[in-house]
Amino acid sequence: MVTQITRGIKISVLTSFEGTYFKNHKIHFAFSYEITIENHSKDSVQLSTRHWEIFDSLNKKEIVDGEGVIGKKPVLKPGEKHTYNSGCLLSSPFGAMMGYFTMINYTTTRTFRVFVPTFKLSAPFALN
User: Fold this and answer.
1) What distances in angstroms separate CA 99 from CA 22, 34, 96, one per listed residue?
2) Which of 102, 120, 122 is nearest to 112 (CA)?
3) CA 108, CA 47: separation in Å to the nearest integer?
4) What CA–CA distances, in Å, run from 26 to 21, 91, 125?
5) Which of 39, 42, 78, 88 has its CB surrounded by the most CB atoms within 10 Å?
6) 89 neighbors 106 (Cβ within 8 angstroms)
7) What is the pLDDT of residues 47-56, one digit of tens each?
């Protein structure tokens, strides 16, 4: 598990290799990840957008931006947490992801970024 705290918001990430799949006559490696967002600040916050940089050892970096996470924009009061699961397909057994969530502070109405630490995606059979 990797973790990082930005402005009182703790992000924790767990990853898992899910298997190989054929798509468009090419093999792909499926990975899942579980992200937990914990509010250790004194203010209520809401996640509004996400930004991902996905690195595949055989391809260029892919950028993914969007609203919320898995269709939700969770509001977290102090002490609360939100956990969700998602995944990605890579064309190689090795890769990584990193990014940030844009959050809104309900007390100040200002937005700020909460950074997601770089997390590795690796198929266990491909490791030495």
Assistant:
1) 27, 14, 11
2) 102
3) 15
4) 8, 8, 19
5) 39
6) no
7) 999 999 999 9
Bridge-based pairing state of the strands 2-6 and 62-67: unpaired
What are the counts of helices (DSSP H) followed by strands (DSSP E) for the chain? Answer: 0, 9
CB-CB neighbours of 69 under 10 Å: 18
Give which of 94, 113, 118 is closest to 102, Cα–Cα: 113
What number of other Cβ atoms are within 10 A of residue 41's Cβ? 20
Q: What H or E segment, with its residue span, contains residue 48?
A: strand 45-56
- Could you tell me the fold of the domain covering 2-126? Immunoglobulin-like (2.60.40)
Structure tokens, 85: 């699961």
Confidence bin at 128 (pLDDT 50/70/90): low
Q: Which pTM was predicted?
A: 0.93
- Long-range contacts of residues 122-127, Cβ cutoff 8 Å, at least 24 apart: 122/17, 122/93, 122/94, 122/95, 123/17, 123/20, 123/29, 123/93, 123/94, 124/17, 125/93, 126/93, 126/94
Query: Domain-by-domain residue ranges, the chain?
Result: 2-126
